[in-house]
Amino acid sequence: MNKIKYIIAREFLTRVQRKSFWVLALLGPFLIASVIVLPVYFASLEDKEIKVIAVVDSSRVFVDRIPETKNLKFRYVENVNIARFIKNFQQEGYWGVLYISHVVTYSPNSVILFSHGQPGLAIKYHIENALKKEIEHRILQANGIEGLDKTLQALKSNVNLRMIKLDDQGNQKDSNTTLAMIVGYTSGFLIYLFIFLFGSQVMRGVIEEKTNRIIEVIVSSVRPFELMMGKIIGVAGVAILQFILWTGITFMLVSVGREALFPDLKRESSSLMMQQNVLQPEATKTIDSSQVSGESEGALTAHAVFEAIRQIDFVVILSSFLFFFLGGYLLYGALFAAIGSLVDNEADTQQFMLPVTIPLILAIYVMINTINNPDSALSFWFSMIPLTSPIVMMVQIPFGVPYWEVAVSMILLIAAFVFFTWFSAKIYRTAILMYGKQISYKEIWKWFKHS
Amino acid sequence: MQLLELKEVSKFYGSYCALNRVSFSVPRGSIFGLLGPNGAGKTTTLRIINQILAPDEGQVLFENRPLRSDDVERMGYLPEERGLYKKMRVGEQALYLAQLKGLDRKEALKRLKYWFEKLEITGWWDKKVEQLSKGMAQKVQFVTTVVHDPALLIFDEPFSGFDPINASMLKNEILELKNRGATIIFSTHNMNSVEELCDAIALINRSQVILAGEVEAIKQQHKKNIFEVIFTGSVEAFQRALRTATFEILSIRTDRTQHQAVVKILSAPADNELLKSIIESVHVVSYREILPTMDEIFIDVVTGK
């Protein structure tokens, strides 16, 4: 077994020396970073244009009643011929014309927005809401309710559902679903991606040795099992290095990108960070809206996010990610090696790929289901079955899973890894020396019966 | 003394019997030929010796004890289908293969340097294997087979696919290795090609050893009392002299003034009986016994003559 270190070293070094490894190392984070940064950037670009809308209000009900925003302004024009006005409002500096007919209070379809550009949903909702509120207000007033403004003020409330999970001992635990979802989804998907990416590297490596015909020389020096395990472990090293590079470079890109695209944000967030520190003692208990009423709305959300991030146990998540990442990869790596040994070239792998691909794709489906419903029986069973557990369990962990479930899932994964490695090694050592023969499932079964 | 001995070795692939009670022994310091047609079981036998495959029945003895897993470090194997990692550099790859054979880095580099200089391929060290021609790659493969100075060298169909220059290089290097004490096993379906090199052989046909032993002894055993006589003089006189029940003239060819006759002695021959019969009639230029070739012996044994 002492020669396995040479095999691991070769498998690792030849892959890390390839250009494609570094291209992937740079490209992966760049894609991830652009997925994170660019939408925010584009959204902020659009925001900067100030749209001035001329309001032609035949009903005269809404004059000065539609609230303005940073980039949406309303000018109320009177005594215009609407037919002529919609032809030349652009020359007068308007982005669009909002026409409100005098029958609006009882015929809701009589409001029209004319514009040359495509109005976004935000504009539509803003105007609709404003008009609706005003109409409601009018109707309530018409029915003669006393102290209306005060009542309406009291009615305005901002509901932000805060969820508290109770564990078996009845202890409370804040759970932030959105963040758990993001963390779970990202780790589950990364495991899926890496199993496919590096599992198929193991497979290609085996096929390469077979088609190169170097295999017979190697197995006359080391046992096939050592060669197979050396390859799987060597590629695991490549995967871990790739993961570290992705994480590091993504982090760098996101922070550099954020600074370049949103220079203000950094100052804001650092001042928020200070507020967060100041608030720390009470904040750990509860965030009462009255307690932070003096804060701006932005600070409040930021505070909630910080609080939620603080709630996540990164040690647990990171270590379980590493475990399920490696466990899943090793399990599938052995299967991919067996598949590689069964064929003479990559095109022939398809008939054997199906049984490996199906559980992985199933895991992705269950993962999406799990995000909506982390406690379902479906999620439970798929987080126990070793072929899907690395992905499905990883999605559940940020939501909080009983320790015994995680432990059972881990033990099953280890047991499955041992079994599948044994199973694959059996196929591998027979199949690597077979050429020019389509191997069927029936034949593989025959080897097992005879060995 | 035997370096290697196979005792009643059998191997089955499912219900197919690839080797059926194969036994033979390889004398230390000899060149041993494993001969037989394609599909006879030669490669399976070599793989069992290399421990790539395990025998289902029987035993392999190496230095008079059962084969151990670390014995692979004392063997060098050049398979019939030979290859290298295309994307790796020549030197790197030779070093890797040498390390897999149990050499440490320093020792491996020293020995590789020796062999690269010997075969005049030092300049290839940093080349990628895919840049090498087939003949160049064969030299590299040969080096990686012998670099760990194995006690037993195994060549499967060594001369197939080698160009003539490399083939003669290979032959010379093999003889040199033999002189330095190595034992060599050849396998080939082209029996006549290694006849002159081999000290001992085993003939395999349809999974079974049908003949094994020293080449000279086998030839003597299977000789058919056929002699070649080259003479000058009258062909008729020659024919007349041998017109008895003892002799059969198989052919007479005339080359300018000399005649070459092939004669079979039918009854058990007394010494020089053929010579005695013709010496009065013609002038004998040369006289020798024709020993059967391995091909002929193989066909005889297979057809049961």
Verbal overview:
The complex is a heterodimer of chains A (451) and B (305). Chain A has helices at residues 4-16, 19-47, 82-88, 121-142, 148-155, 177-212, 215-219, 224-261, 263-283, 297-311, 314-342, 350-372, 377-382, 389-396, 403-431, 441-450; strands at 51-57, 72-77, 96-100, 111-115, 163-166, 172-175. Chain A is an alpha/beta fold and 451 residues long. Chain A folds into two domains: 4-39 and 177-288 and 296-450, no CATH class; 50-137, Periplasmic binding protein-like II (D-Maltodextrin-Binding Protein, domain 2), CATH 3.40.190.10. In chain A, the strands form two sheets. Chain A has a four-stranded mixed beta sheet, covered by helices on one side. In chain A, strands 5-6 form a two-stranded antiparallel sheet. In chain A, helix 2 runs parallel beside helix 8 (224-261) and helix 6 packs across helix 8 (224-261). With 305 residues, chain B is α/β, with parallel strands linked by helices. Chain B contains ten helices and 14 strands. In chain B, the strands form three sheets. Chain B has a six-stranded mixed beta sheet with strand order 6-7-8-3-9-10, with helices on both faces. Chain B has a four-stranded antiparallel beta sheet with strand order 2-1-4-5, with helices on one face. Chain B is elongated and about 75 Å long. The interface between A and B is medium-sized, with 24 and 29 residues.
